Amino acid sequence: MIETGIPKLDGYLHGGIPEGNSLVYYAYPGVDGGVFGMQTIFHAVSGGRCGAYIASSTDPRMIRDQFMEFGWDMGESVFADRFTIVDAFSGLIGADSQERYVVPEPDNINSLTQCIKQVMEEMPEPGIIVFESLSTVMDLCGEKETLDAVLEWNKYAMLYDHVMVYNFTAWPYSEETLLQVKGDACNSVVSVGGISEKVIFGWYFGLLKLDWAEMIRKWVLFKILKPGGVRIYIPKILVTGPFDAGKSTVVHALSNRAVSVDRLGTTIALDHGHIDHNGFAADVFGTPGQERFDPIVKLLSGEAMGVFLVLDSANATGFARGVRMLEITESFGLPVVVIANKQDLPEALAPEEIKTRLDIPESVPILPAVAADSEGVFEAFETLVEMVMGVN
Amino acid sequence: MSTSEMLVKVLGDLQKIGEIEASAIATRDGLLMSADMHAKGDPETFVAMSATMLGAAETATSELGKDVPNRVIVEADDGKLICMGAGPKALVVVMTAPGAGLGLVLVEMTKSAEKIAKLI
User: Fold this and answer.
1) CB contact under 8 A, B49 and A30
2) How many domains does chain B have?
3) Please, which residues have CB within 8 angstroms of residue B66's CB and are 6 or more apart in sequence?
4) Number of structural domains found in chain A
5) Which among A199, A272, A295 has the least Cβ separation from residue B27?
6) Are both A223 and A236 inside the same structural domain?
7) Coil, strand or helix at A25
8) FRET partner for A337 with CA separation of 20 to 30 A, picked from A11, A89, A175, B70?
9) A1-56 pLDDT per residue, tens
10) Is A359 helix (H, G, I), strand (E, B) or coil?
11) Does A44 share its domain with A132?
């Protein structure tokens, strides 16, 4: 089994790609799908596997730079005997190549096949072979020729227990070609696309095909971070709650970068922060808590995908106001996690005690935290993310 | 052309008048739809704050029984920040260069806002 390193995807693949199997990242034009293959091979190689990256549209030196942009240093000496770039580009422009494997005629499919087979034979142990761009190969060598070759490569990979991964962009090829790439060519297909439905603008991925286990039909939004790579993305998480419960502190404790509009120690407009944690990225919006700001709170809470209700565990008089804020933000029906903050205060109530005093559904989790010390906030984030993912 | 590509075109056309340092389209509740920041600043935060500002201005005037304002203009020594609604769901916001002529920017922004309102 070789993991892809793409958050959530390995779960959907039931652990990763089993040896001898193939996967295609099927990206729609306009979506940067190339990073999926790059992240997959980086994850595999840094995890101790062998990997070969077939460069067909970019100079290998620039490929190394592209990896570096994401913070993946493929030139590290520990990778030297495990990672190779197969140069199927320099031959096109008549340039010299420094790489160990060079395809002399990249526009001739037999020349490419010969080189790929050699790579598979010489790889010291079962590893992973990632194509920078199968579409480029198709443009150079022909659609039918390339598809026939893919079947041959996959068969060969099966023989040697290698994993094949293709980045493919669905340019307007013939209907038959596209159907085959999505269908019979490989053991699994991950669709990578863009959405601009309603007002959510972003990118998603999900499984189109899986033949080694039961297919999980889920779609997740993602974002590409540099450095970082593919992250599951939640465009809006709302942080709300009564005055002085610690909402801004929670936003800052969770975020890598955050800004607050506060005057005289209280938020008057909005806290806004970016979270990057454990493969998940999210933008958080923290609302003011005082009643005079309610019109703004209502205005800014639209389109949230999940909600944190922050409570001061030592101040039970604010609990009713907290529930009221869930109403103002129209949060009922959305995934909600209650953060029982300020657990370090001597008079703080335990989460179970708070539950009995709070008029909210039984299913809403209440988690302890000391946001000022960053205690418990990431546990709450992980809980909320799981709930948001479960809804889709 | 997808909707997001159309929004990119609207912002591109708006940039052509020059003296615009950053521009963005967002939902009224502060989610980014499209931005051209010239590699400066963080677009998500920029639009979240702009949406807050516009919403707060609309709330403030309506408290006094006035109509919804046409736009919010923030004047600073090194530029002007202009934010206006683009239909019920969206808004458009720009940051101009210090010497930018307000008249031309407002005329072009109004045109952009009308286009955005039809797209979303």
Assistant:
1) no
2) 1
3) none
4) 2
5) A199
6) no
7) strand
8) A11
9) 999 999 999 999 999 999 999 999 999 988 889 999 999 999 999 999 999 999 99
10) coil
11) yes
